[in-house]
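Before relying on records like the one below, remember that each one covers exactly one chain. Contacts with other chains, cofactors or solvent are not represented anywhere in the record.
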Amino acid sequence: MLTSLRYLAGAAGPSGFSSRTTAEEATADCADLHHITAIITGATSGIGAETARVLAKRGARLVLPARSLKAAEEARARLRAECPGADVVVLPLDLSSLASVRRFVARFLALGLPLNLLVNNAGKYADRFAVSEDGVEMTFATNYLGHFLLTRLLLEKMAETARATGVEGRIVNVSSSIHSWFAGDDDAVGYLDRVTRRKIPYDPTRAYALSKLANVLHTKALAQRLKEKKANVTANCVHPGIVRTRLIRDRDGLVTNTVFFLASKLLKTIPQAAATTCYVAVHPAVAGVSGKYFADCNEAAPSRLGASSEEAAKLWSFSDAVTAEKAQKMSVHATGFRLQVQSSNADCGMAFA
């Protein structure tokens, strides 16, 4: 209740920032980021585009992966128009395809660039059921599994950059408070298996909630592994807030428009929604902080399931198996995150984020 009142009032939390803070305000103490190279997924529109704009304005070199190179080129042109001399690299990436993720990483590594910051921002809310080329439900594949593999393949480069430069590497996973809508007594992987095989009706909101829960659990498990490896790299996740981005504009209609009109006082602007991502990505106050969940530029509490180290470890094992170098045929038991994997010879609503 207190958190909700603070949000509505725009009252500052312990960090000195609030729900009304903009990305530029959150990075005012980080005026020179010329030493930072950042990969930002989903940076062609919405929160990702504002994150890219603010970091470019502070001098960071940006790598923009995108499924549509035309959209990415247009985003680069906008950035260079506002930030003359901005160093922006565009590369193709379809996060729903594990093969595309591997090709992107190979292309990036071939450039010989350092990597200080990875912002896993891209997301989708799929109204209709679809399956990726790897046989995974599309929302889960795009919002979580592609980012899991992307992060895993870039970890060594990030650790290497941190060792060489002495600058802490940071990974930011953009989640959502809607992750708490996937109830703690639900069987996550069992649900994923059943909906993928059309054993149960597809619920787009539940599918989105599961993907955002996976982002939170990924962060927790990743932070633990980074600590064990003594890597100078942190991992945190953020809830950006409720904002009307392209995710929801694609579903304009009388009901949608009415809901957003009535809820207008609760909505953030895009600059406000990008603030927490930018704060966690570069602010000095977050140095050394890892495995945490942030909202409104302040540390917050995830759901009970999102805070579970056991569930985080189970999901990591599941994801590691599914994204193995060779394509895998999944047979998922409907109990917890237990699974059986058989190898094949194949190669391998509202916008809250």
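Confidence is low (pLDDT under 50) at residues 246-251, 327-353.
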